[in-house]
């Protein structure tokens, strides 16, 4: 994959790229939105801990497809309040880690999820050579 960040655009606000080119013949994985709920049904109170769980779940899904966070092309995230943005972004940056190619990213503030205690939901597109 190739990051697309034209010099004519303002640099991204955070750790993401404006575009990602996915080459022909690439395997794609699309996750469902992951919520901050553990396998034991517990839900931490903090947005950061919920985001970490979301990314841990995504890591497990990608691993089943033989992929890693380095294969992510796009991240879509949803938080229920602006106050959760920094916590989410910290968890995202820790998940992505240092890399030569940052994925594209969308972050939306939404009114809520299926259960009131959820603060963060994350979904990704990943791609890897076939």
TrEMBL record:
Q: Which domain of life is it from?
A: Bacteria
Listed InterPro entries = RutC-like_sf (IPR035959), YjgF/YER057c/UK114 (IPR006175)
Under the heading PANTHER family, the entry gives: BLR7761 PROTEIN, YJGH FAMILY PROTEIN
Q: Kindly provide the name given to this protein in its UniProt entry.
A: Enamine deaminase RidA
């Amino acid at each position: 994959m190739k990051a697309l960040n034209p010099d004519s655009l303002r640099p991204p606000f955070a750790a993401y790229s404006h575009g990602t080119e996915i080459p022909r013949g690439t395997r794609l994985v699309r996750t469902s939105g992951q919520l901050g709920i553990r396998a034991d049904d517990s839900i931490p109170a903090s947005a950061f801990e919920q985001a970490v769980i979301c990314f841990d779940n995504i890591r497990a899904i990608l691993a089943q497809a033989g992929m890693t966070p380095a294969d992510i092309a796009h991240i879509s995230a949803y938080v229920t309040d602006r106050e959760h943005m920094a916590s989410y972004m910290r968890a995202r940056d820790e998940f992505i880690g240092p890399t030569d190619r940052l994925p594209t990213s969308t972050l939306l503030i939404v009114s809520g999820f299926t259960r009131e205690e959820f603060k963060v939901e994350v979904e990704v597109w990943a791609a890897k050579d076939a």
